[in-house]
Amino acid sequence: MTAPHADSEVGPLRTVLLHRPGRELKRLTPRNNDQLLFDSIPWVGRAQEEHDRFAEVLRSRDVEVLLLADVLVEALADERAHASATSMAVERLRLGEELSDAVASYLSTMDSRVLADVLMAGMTFEELPAAEGASLVRRMHHPRDFVVDPLPNLLFTRDSSVWISDRVAIASLAMPARRRETALLDLVYAYHPRFRTAGRAYGAHSAPVEGGDVLLLGPGVLAIGVGERTTPAGAESLARSVFADGLAHTVLAVPIAQDRATMHLDTVCTMVDRDAVVMYPAVRDTLVAYPLRPNGPEGVQVEGPVPFLTAAASAMGIDKLRVIDTGLDPVTAEREQWDDGNNTLAVAPGVVVAYERNVETNARLEDAGIEVLRIGGSELGSGRGGPRCMSCPITRLPL
Questions:
Q1: Is the bond into 176 cis (omega within 30 degrees of 0)?
Q2: How confident is the model over 53-84, as pLDDT tens digits?
Q3: d(CA 388, CA 392)
Q4: Distance of CA 76 to CAs 180, 210, 213, 375, Å?
Q5: How far apart are CA 292 and CA 303, in angstroms?
Q6: What is residue 304's predicted lDDT score, i.e. its pLDDT?
Q7: CA dihedral sign, ordered 232, 13, 383, 286
Q8: Which SS3 state, helix, strand or coil, does residue 131 take?
């Protein structure tokens, strides 16, 4: 086992956290898929096949793949984690005191594996034993309504936690459908034997920051997208934290459009080599950054705005960043950006995992000397996320 540590986007990947799609995706229906942030209802069996292939590709490159379901079960073996998980799964304001007590009591009897499944896939009223919680709340809900909501977006492990150097930042997720995800990751990092000694770089109860908006451009340099999911207060708060811990000398706050197509910074730009990014051409010349740097023991100096590519290269100590565009024409670029053409996962400098359907972008990457490891994503992409979104690097070797 290698110790958790990551200070770049492209250092050789050694350990990564993934979540194999499970029963939580089978909870999606035409009634709830919008609320649960999916654009369509995925074919779960095919999504699992695609994800298995993703994990296989990573293992073939000597990457240790940890699956969230497994580490959650192992963490729940600790009685304190089990009790905490039982408590946080119950929404007392929605269920009322009587039903909440009954549900908590029922969950407390479950072994770690069954409880982990409920925490991820949720539980309906008809799955709750008839003797538990004979309350008005139960009577007035449909049997297929959820007592515990499912978490289908667990698939996107990048968003809920980020390793910055040897510390983990627990994200503060903006959308109500995702907020309980961070509680699960909190449990894993607090109680799993492998992680419980790790320091924290950020907490889930802080201002909104999501991992898809956080790019580790290089040692000591972070870019944080500010848009639909991460707020200016969140970006500044994370900057203060990493400055105080000596984890960074520069943070670039990068405004992005607040819409579904560009929900995170990594939907328009990811690093593919030490000095290269793949970028949506529509934002190449307009993306700006506000450089943040430490100013005294607790202060933050804010500059800009300045062009993002210029600011990034300067902070990284290089002449310029090579930019590989998504597509040759505006229509192809827009289609492949929507299909996560920019959302690549680097497994080493100049080696990335990408969805096979982004034919033009992948060809341009290869023309620029980048090795592309292609995976299927027809079903995995239904929640709006690519290989980077589906992976939380825990250990990368230094560049």
A1: no
A2: 999 999 999 999 999 999 999 999 999 999 99
A3: 8
A4: 16, 25, 29, 32
A5: 6
A6: 87
A7: positive
A8: coil
Residue with tokens 């790019």: 215
Q: What phi and psi, each to the nearest 5 degrees, are found at residue 221?
A: -130, 120
pLDDT in tens, 313-372: 999 999 999 999 876 656 565 655 555 557 899 999 999 999 998 888 999 999 999 999
Instruction: Name the pLDDT band for 383 (thresholds 50, 70, 90).
Output: low
H helix intervals, the chain? 44-60, 68-76, 79-88, 92-95, 97-108, 112-121, 136-139, 157-160, 179-191, 232-244, 281-284, 308-316, 330-338, 359-367
Calculate the average pLDDT of the chain. Answer: 89
Marked catalytic residue, from 55, 254, 269, 389: 389
3-state secondary structure of 297: coil
Contact 210, 271 (CB under 8 A): no
DSSP code for 387: T
Same fold, 13-68+152-396 and 71-148: no
Residue pair 125/144 in contact (Cβ under 8 Å)? The answer is yes
Strands 351-355 and 322-325: unpaired
State yes or no: is 389 an active-site residue.
yes
Residue identified by tokens 């994370």 is: 238
For the cut 90, the answer to whether the pLDDT of residue 234 exceeds it is: yes
- Residue pair 287/307 in contact (Cβ under 8 Å)? The answer is yes
Is domain 71-148 annotated with CATH 1.10.3930?
Answer: yes
Any idea what DSSP says for residue 3? Answer: P
Of the candidates 329, 330, 337, the residue with the CA atom closest to the CA atom of residue 354: 337
Assigned fold of 13-68+152-396: L-arginine/glycine Amidinotransferase; Chain A (3.75.10)
pTM score, whole prediction: 0.92
Domain ranges of the chain: 13-68+152-396, 71-148
pLDDT score at 143: 86
Distance of alpha carbon 348 from alpha carbon 61, whole angstroms: 9
Q: Are 86 and 108 spatial neighbours (Cβ–Cβ below 8 Å)?
A: yes
In whole angstroms, give the CA distance from residue 283 to residue 265.
Answer: 11
- The arithmetic mean of pLDDT across residues 91-111, rounded, is 92
